[in-house]
Amino acid sequence: MSFLTTPLDNNDDGCSKVNNREGASTVDENGHTKLHKAAEKGQCDIIAALLKGGAKVNKQDKLGMTALHYATENGHTGAIELLLNVGADIGATDKKKRTLLHCAAENGNSQVIEMLIKTGAEIDATGERDCTALHCASKTGNRAVVDVLVNNGADIGAKDEDGCTALHYAAEDGHCSVLELLLDRAEKQRRDSAKL
């Protein structure tokens, strides 16, 4: 049994067991801390207790992921807000250079994307292969996420290391509604810039 299975898997409070520096910073064979697991599950009370007990908010696991990455991947807005309020790095990247926006885009969570953008996440930050969050969202075909990113100024013309844009990703994977949205927005941007 891993240290992570008790009390976090039972959604117990567990606060008395983690309210010390030793318990808050223990890691498993993958470099996961209790904070990583609590963030993954959105357990805000446990996150708060771990942080009070000395857990390092920006500690990375073997994949380079922080607790904020895990909360973001799983759409736990309360945990995201709590972690950001105590100094979690909005610009954190994992070993694949994925930002928090990349994680949210890959998992189709437009609410988390809006939250991260409002908090200062760099919308056109590039990750592995120079892909942006818009590339990721276009590849997965999530129109709502693409819409949020474009409405917040994501660069439709951003190219990955192969010269492909989000349009290429949407077309390649047959995501017609995303492709239509991107083409409409690109045309609108072209018309608007022609007026200047």
Structure in a nutshell:
This protein is mostly helical and 196 residues long. 53% of the residues lie in helices and 0% in strands. The chain has helices at residues 15-18, 21-25, 34-41, 44-52, 67-73, 77-85, 100-106, 110-119, 133-140, 143-151, 166-172, 176-195.
Question: Could you explain how this protein is built, in words?
Answer:
- The chain has 196 residues and is an all-alpha fold.
- The protein has 2 domains: 1-89, Serine Threonine Protein Phosphatase 5, Tetratricopeptide repeat; 97-196, Ankyrin repeat-containing domain (Serine Threonine Protein Phosphatase 5, Tetratricopeptide repeat), CATH 1.25.40.
- Helix content is 53%, strand content 0%.
- The chain has 12 helices and no strands.
- Helix 10 runs parallel beside helix 12.
Keywords:
disordered N terminus; Serine Threonine Protein Phosphatase 5, Tetratricopeptide repeat; elongated; 196 residues; 2 domains; mainly alpha; 12 helices
